[in-house]
Amino acid sequence: MAFLRSLDITGSALTAERYRSEVILQNIAGANVTRTAAGGPYRRKQVVFEERPLSFQDHVRHACIRNGYRKSGGVRVQQMVDSTNALKPVYDPHHPDADADGYVWYPNVDTTEEITDLMAASNAYEANLTALNVVKAMINKSLEMT
Q1: For residue 139, what are the CA distances in angstroms to 14, 130, 132?
Q2: What are the pLDDT digits (tens) for 8-32?
Q3: SS3 content of the chain, % helix, strand, coil (to 5)
Q4: What are the CB-based long-range contacts (under 8 Å, 24+) for 36-41?
Q5: Are 7 and 135 spatial neighbours (Cβ–Cβ below 8 Å)?
Q6: pLDDT category, 2, cuts 50, 70, 90?
Q7: Cβ contact 77:44 at 8 Å
Q8: Distance, CA of 93 to CA of 28 (rounded, Å)
C-alpha cells in the first residue's frame, strides 16, 4: 500500500507542476497585452502550492500508530494570485491605450523571469517523473519476486 501512496503523492506533484507551467505560459503570452476584458493591462499571475491534506481516516490511523506523527498527502494548487509588482509605464501618446499624459501601462511580466520559472517547473516535473518511474520499477521488481 505504501507504493500506491507514493504514486498518489508523485501524481499530485506532476499535476501541480503542469498547472504551474500553464500559468507561466499564460504570463508569457500576456507580456504585451495592454487591455484585457477587465479593462486594464494584463497582470502577472503566480501559483501558490500547499500540502494536500490526508483524509480524516488517515489522520486517525496515524495518530493511533504514533502520537504526533504527520504524513503528507501530496501537493495541490492552493490559489492563483496576481502579482503586486508595479506596471511598466511607456511614453507612447499615439497608442490607443495611452492615458491623458501619453503613457501606456504595460504588464508587470518579465519574460526572462518567466522563462526561468518555466525551467524550474520543468525540472521539478522531470524530477517527479523520475521518482514515479523509480516507484514503478520497484513495484515491478516486487511482483517478479512473488
Answers
A1: 19, 14, 11
A2: 888 899 999 999 999 999 999 999 9
A3: 50, 15, 35
A4: 40/105, 41/87, 41/97, 41/105, 41/106, 41/107
A5: yes
A6: low
A7: no
A8: 25
Considering only residues 1 and 99, tell me which one the structure prediction assigns the higher pLDDT: 99
pLDDT of res. 56: 63
With cell 501558490, the residue in question is: 48
- CB under 8 Å, gap of 24 or more: what pairs does 43-46 form? 43/82, 43/83, 43/87, 43/107, 43/108, 44/82, 44/83, 44/85, 44/107, 44/108, 44/109, 45/80, 45/81, 45/82, 45/83, 46/80, 46/81, 46/82, 46/83
For the record, the C-alpha cell of 21 comes out as 507551467
Q: Read off the amino acid at residue 123.
A: N
